[in-house]
Structure formats: structure tokens, C-alpha cells
Sequence to fold (519 residues):
Amino acid sequence: MKVGALVRGDIDGFFGLFVDNLLQLMLIAVLCGNVCGMPTDTVLGKILPGAALSILFGNAYYAWQARKLTVRTGRTDVTALPYGINTVSLIAYVFLIMAPVYFETKDPNLAWQAGLFACIASALLECVGAFVGDWLRRHTPRAALLSSLAGIAITFISMGFVFQIFAMPAIAVVPALLVIIVYGGQIKLPLGLPGGFVAVALGVAMGWILRWSGYLYFQPLQESYQFAIHLPQTTFSDMFAFLANGQGWKYFSVIFPMALFNVVGSLQNLESAEAAGDRYDTRSSLLINGLGSIVAACLGNPFPTTIYIGHPGWKAMGARWAYSALNGAVITVLCLIGGITLVLRIVPIEAMIGILLWVGLIITAQAFQEVPKKHSVAVAIGLMPALAAWALLLIEATLRKTGATLYQVAPKFGSDLYVYGIISLSQGFMLTCMILSAMMVFVVERQFFKAALWTATAAVLSFFGVIHAYILTPAGVQNKFGIGAAKAYALAYFIASLLLLALHYYNRGRESERTGIIA
Fold:
């Protein structure tokens, strides 16, 4: 096979990554308009073109990176790192930065400027993180890096889409099952047709046939499409306007953990790719991550772009490097011509999400398969903070639909749900996933001193509010930075680290006695 060839798996990988990116762009259009009051001109004329160019920038680099690795190693199974807009960052920036600004000022332009500032600040922090990422990766157990990805995969990706699939069985269940059957059984379809393409085509056909038959399961967007070219615009003055008026620093309690979240998430995705067989340089990969978000902010997109979760899923589909380049090109064209609405007038979103369900399943399975068997308990404990974050999302979404807020309702839960435990465990959940999992790995290996270091790290992070600390406000759950932000958790972790240190010296003493007896 030639290095430059487009293989069948690239088509499947393209569909999966395209669907994922398309979903993020849909969220941007809906949330920026409905929650932050932004007019269509801002969304279609500024945000989406900027998002497209930043996605193209990253996809082009990671495709080149994978092609370079292919040439260097002589392998023909190298898969490019997927790249796009981070869902968690998108939700956090909308509800914790942009929406509060809009609710306070009723100025959608100021809310957009707040997002741009958050994006550029996060990007600069990510670039700094690129220079320490490789050290962190070398000193963190694989189970710790993979467990939080598995937690995100089984909750924010898989479960959400499972609910959507089974809410629309007429047009979603068959395509989803076809994806699982073809990829799970590694079945080759007649004529070499890509499984993902066939599944989506089948879902589209079923949706339209049922609609023409009078069963309106598929509801196309009512908004008419008008062809127009939306070129990206530079936004240098808007990026720093929010800082100039003194409000920028107010939101660093959100910006800093989200930047840290993106760095850690990218490290985990790099580890996931290596576990699947593709090792990429950490520093250059993280630098491109940060630079991609800088491109985004400079061109009007307030949402950071980053290395995506899902590399093992695309690899299992047979995707190589061309799927990434193809995704960047198609997303760019769609955004520049305002074509997102056109796609959604033709294709039922339910027909496409089976591919993302499969990706979530593969990532979850990988976390258990690619670590020593005795470390599986470390993966399991690392899932729990992600489960808490997902539970909090469900609770808040449910309350919003009823016209209530968590601020109003939380005191009424009592001991029925322990909602305050859910909130605290969800804060900085990716870091907590890593720490608990790493601690468990070293406990299993009876390396109690290293386990104590990880637990002491949790104590420090808790004390300064990076994990577990929060403030419950009418606008939602917000981070709480500062000295003594989560004192109870800091004390608990500190005591646990002392116990682990005691075990270290006790165990070392017993080992010395045993060695002396043997001698």
C-alpha cells in the first residue's frame, strides 16, 4: 500500500470524526444563540468560520504527523490523532463564562469577547504545559492516563448517545447495531463498502422513507438554507477588550482548570494512541494543540480545539492519516458556506451517532485491555469521578428543563442523593481520576512511597481548590480557587498520605527482615 493512498478505513474514520465535529458545531450554534443571545451573523459569520480554520489547522498537522511516522517506521497501520472542539470545554465556557456575562449585561457581543479571552488565555497556558507534559507522561501509570478517558467515553460519549438512539428506535437502532456488528465482528461488507458509510446511508434512507410514509420520526430543520461565503475575520481587539475592562481575571477560576483539563486530556489521548501502537512526540503535539486554539481565538472562535478522544476507535475502523485531512477540509467548506444547517436538513443526526457509540465502547475496553490485569481495579476506581461529573450534568439539565436550578433545589436532596458529594467529586474530575488511579496502581504494586506522593498531590490540589472545591451559585456550579478552598479534602488526603508513608516504612522494614533471614 502506498503511503499517500486513501484506504477504506479512512472513509469510516472520516464519518466518525466528521459526525463528532459536526455535533460540536451544532451545539455551538444552538447554545450561543439560545443561551448567550448571539445573533445568527455572529455565529455563522464569525464563530463557525473561525472554528473551521482552527479545526483545519490541527487536522492538517496531525495528518502530516501520522504520514511522517508511516514513512519513518515503514508501517501501514499508523492512525492520525483525531482533533476537534472539546465538548467539556465548550459546555464550561458557555455556562460558566459567556452565559453569566450575558445574563449580567444583556450584551451578546461582550459575552462573545469573554469567550475569546478565555480561549486565548487557555491556549497560552496549554503552550506552557507542552514543556512539562512529557515528564508528566513518563511518571504517570498508564492506568491513570487511560481510566479518565474511559470514564468520559462510557458516560459523556456512549451513554448520552445510547439514550438518543433508543429514544428514536425507528431510525437509529438499526444503523447503530450495524456499526457494532461490522466493527465488533471485523466483518467485511460486499464490494468492500465501509461499514460506517453503509450505516449512515441506511439511517438516512429509513428516516426519509418513514417520513414520506407519514411517520414523522425525522424532523428536518425548518430554517431554510441560503448559500453565502462566510470568511473568517481577525478579532485581536475583541480578544483583549474583556481583559481591558477588568473582568478577564474574574474568570480565571474557570479558564485555568479548563486549560489544565485540555493538557491532561491531550496527554491521556497520546497515551491512548501509544497503547494502540502509535507513539507521537508529546511536546510538538501539545504545542500544536495550543497553537490551534490561538488560531481559533484570533479568527473569532471562543472554543478551544484539542486532540480528541477516540484514536483507538478510528484505528479499529482501519483509519490511517487521510481521514484527518479529509475531515478538516470538509468541515472547513461546510462552515465557510454556512452548510451545517443544510446537512441537518437532509441527514438525521440519529443515523450517525452509532459510530460515536462504537468509539466510546472501544476506548472503555482499551483502558482495561492495555494495562496489567492486576491494575484493572485502578482503572475501575478512576472511572468514578467521571461518573460523578456525568451525574451532575444530568441533574442540572433535568432541573433546567423544569425551570429550577441546582442552587434552589440542592438543599432539598438531603441524604437521598448526596448531591454535594456528586458536585465535589466532579470538580476537576479528570485530575481526580488520574490521582486515584495512579495511587491504586502503586498500592497494588506495593510501592507505597509513590502512592503517598500521589495522595499528597491530591491534598495540595484540594487545598488550593483545583479539585473538589466549588461554589454553588444561581448561575451554576463554579470553581473555588484560593488557600484552604477544600480544607476537609486536603486534610483527608494528607492523612491518607501519612498512612501510606507508614506502610512504606513498615513494609520496607519487613522486607529487610526477610532479606536478613534469607541471608
In short: The chain has a mean pLDDT of 84. DSSP finds 21 helices and four strands in the chain. The beta strands are 83-85, 305-307, 470-473, 476-479. The two ends are 60 Å apart (CA to CA).
